[in-house]
Design brief:
Distance between the termini: 10 Å
Number of helices: 19
Radius of gyration: 25 Å
Strand order of the largest sheet: 3-2-4-1-10-9-11-15
Structural class: alpha/beta
Helix content: 25-40%
Shape: globular
Number of strands: 27
Strand content: 15-25%
Length: 617
């Protein structure tokens, strides 16, 4: 959940590291810190600050106050220890001989701390990370001051997840990195501005300097010198790795004139959706060959399990409705954090689909590994090429959303929907459960989605006006049936995560089973009504809510104008094949959450207590 960066090269490190951390601040913003090997003294200088990265930048004069060409940086999402300057990273050994930054959780840090206390070490913070620094120091001094040896022994001793950037005072030309279950990217730049080597939690901080990167695998170590990178496994044997080319546009990680990344990414959805369609639809036909999915494999399926967290879980809910409507395949959708602990009874004629934007989500990765242990085929729907989930899954469908910086996902969610539609259509076609003509029609309709999304975006001013009316709301509810319920889940999440308004989504048919008691005069209730066969039933539920004093917003497709007799405010989206309405109906709800947050003056891109990539339990 935290973000780490490191640099070893010819340029001054601190300004580069601050620039890199600014690209990672979505991963955590409780505190930040830098450690730089001082060119003149050889000491490792550490500066830390509580709060947003800008405080650290001010404290270091934008990095100019720290001189040195090798260093590490960190932006923190607190797990062990409250946000404070003391608990901020980097952390160090008692003599500052070893300094490191950490993303992850060390589960057995209490036991290790007790061992180190008996060996004469002292501790100044509440963090698990300080334990890692001192454990490496212990092994470094015990085993001949060999960095690889010390790191490898730490890896054997520690339980949990981690990616570490490590400096050794008496190895001034070297930067070390290691990972287990937390992402870490390594790259080498030959550009004049910042020639050298880099580490980072993801590719966004180093895209400016190199497009060729290495993804550290689990239990691998990297030694970065100014002009070379060496890799080792836990047995300390050298490892040969192949680089991965990053094809993302560097401008995609910049705001490009928009006030926030979130609104920029909302507007990027037409292109992201079109790019993802184009990746799998060739000359009017679906081509899943790059994902390694064959017709025979789809014909063999009797069960699909969608497993994901957060918004990706909501994609799985929507995908379940679509696939079960088009095919005879039974679908279950599970939260990854529940799936991994419930001992699921997976059958061999099934497929486990893991959906993740980052490809590093801890619970989703654990669920993937559980499915593989049980011998069940796996498919990853991910956005990041070379991510851990992508590398470990049996099959991969990449979404082409490009870098997504705002914590609240928008375009990644929309592209995940497209991947699930494509899977559903192709499964139905090859199994003979829809005709070739029906499949062709659905593909043609899917090709219209980018233009229709743009059409919804062109009408955003009405949503902005409406959002301003409810910026002071305490509670909101979203209701729908079937696919409309799946849309409601995501709409509610968008509202709560960035506006801090209590918001819930309910299956509309459940209102009379307790939920309707929460409705008070003026409570905003958003009714999603895009499914024609369920329209009247959900409208009836809205009438019930209205009679209890609720303020009603209806979200439906063009043509359903009779809804205006029932609700106080209506948003229309273009008609499409009803299996695809999630892609259109979610846009007004993304905008509603965004504009409510703006009206409240909140930090839209970095909501409190949240991080973009949840890489720890």
């Amino acid at each position: 959940m935290c973000g780490i960066v490191g640099y070893n090269g010819i340029a001054q490190a601190a300004p580069l590291l601050l620039e890199g951390l600014s690209k990672l601040e979505y991963r955590g913003y409780d505190s930040a810190g830098l450690a730089i090997v001082n060119d003149e003294t050889g000491n490792i200088d550490i500066v830390k600050a509580k709060g947003r990265l800008k405080i650290l930048a001010e404290k270091t004069d934008a990095g100019r106050a720290m001189r040195g060409t090798i260093g590490i940086g960190h932006t923190r999402w607190a797990t062990h220890g409250a946000p404070s300057e003391t608990n901020a990273h980097p952390h160090c050994s008692d003599d500052r001989e070893i300094v490191l930054v950490h993303n992850g959780i060390i589960e057995n840090y209490v036991q290790i701390k007790e061992k180190l206390l008996k060996s004469g070490y002292t501790f100044y913070s509440e963090t698990d990370t300080e334990v890692a620094a001192k454990l490496i120091h212990y092994y470094y001094n015990k085993y001949g001051k060999n960095p690889i040896e010390a790191i490898a022994r730490m890896m054997v001793r520690v339980r949990g997840s981690y990616s570490l950037g490590i400096l050794f005072k008496d190895r001034p030309g070297e930067l070390y990195a290691v990972r287990k279950d937390s992402p870490l990217v390594v790259g080498k730049s030959e550009g004049k501005d910042a020639e050298g080597t880099f580490i980072a939690s993801d590719v966004t901080p180093i895209m400016k300097y190199t497009r060729s990167v290495y993804y550290l695998d689990n239990l691998e170590i990297a030694c970065l010198k100014k002009d070379s990178i060496e890799f080792y496994n836990i047995d300390k044997d050298p490892v040969q790795k192949e680089p991965v080319e990053i094809k993302w546009d560097t401008k995609a990680a910049e705001k490009g004139g928009y006030e926030h990344f979130m609104i920029k990414e909302i507007h990027e959805q037409p292109k992201a959706v079109q790019d993802t369609i184009n990746a799998y639809v060739k000359e009017g036909k679906i081509d899943l060959s790059e994902a390694g999915i064959t017709d025979d494999f789809l014909k063999s399926l009797d069960q699909i399990y969608f497993v994901a967290c957060g918004s990706a879980y909501h994609v799985g809910v929507a995908a379940g409705y679509v696939i079960e409507d088009l095919t005879s395949i039974h679908v279950e959708t599970s939260l990854a954090s529940e799936f991994r602990y419930r001992d699921p009874k997976l059958r061999q004629d099934s497929l486990v689909v893991i959906i993740s934007q980052s490809g590093e989500t801890a619970d989703s990765l654990a669920a993937l590994r559980l499915a593989k242990e049980k011998g069940v085929p796996t498919l990853a729907i991910v956005n990041v090429v070379g991510s851990t989930i992508a590398r470990e899954a049996g099959h991969v469908m990449y979404t082409l959303a490009g870098p997504e910086i705002a914590v609240a996902t928008t375009k990644a969610y929309s592209t995940q929907l497209i991947a699930s539609y494509i899977l559903a259509i192709e499964a139905a076609r090859v199994r003979g459960e829809i005709t070739e003509e029906k499949a062709s029609y659905m593909l043609q309709e899917m090709q219209t989605l980018p233009g229709k999304i743009q059409q919804v975006l062109n009408d955003k001013d009405r949503i902005q006006w409406f959002a301003a009316k409810f910026a002071g709301a305490q509670d909101m509810f979203f209701i729908g049936r079937g696919l409309d319920y799946a849309i409601s889940l995501e709409g509610s999440l968008k509202m709560k995560e960035i506006s801090y308004i209590h918001s819930e989504a309910y299956a509309a048919g459940e209102l009379k089973h307790g939920t309707i008691s929460l409705i008070e005069k003026g409570t905003l209730v958003v009714g999603v009504m895009t499914q024609s066969k369920l329209f009247e039933k959900t409208r009836s539920n809205m009438v019930e809510v209205g009679s209890r004093g609720g303020y009603l917003m209806g979200l439906t497709t063009y043509g359903n104008y009779s809804i205006e007799d029932t609700v106080n405010f209506t948003v229309y989206v273009p008609k499409t094949d009803e299996h695809f309405t999630t892609s259109l109906a979610i846009i007004p709800l993304q905008l509603l959450g965004y504009y409510v947050s703006c009206a409240k003056g909140l930090d839209v891109d970095k909501p409190r207590n949240l991080a973009k990539s949840v890489t720890v339990e």
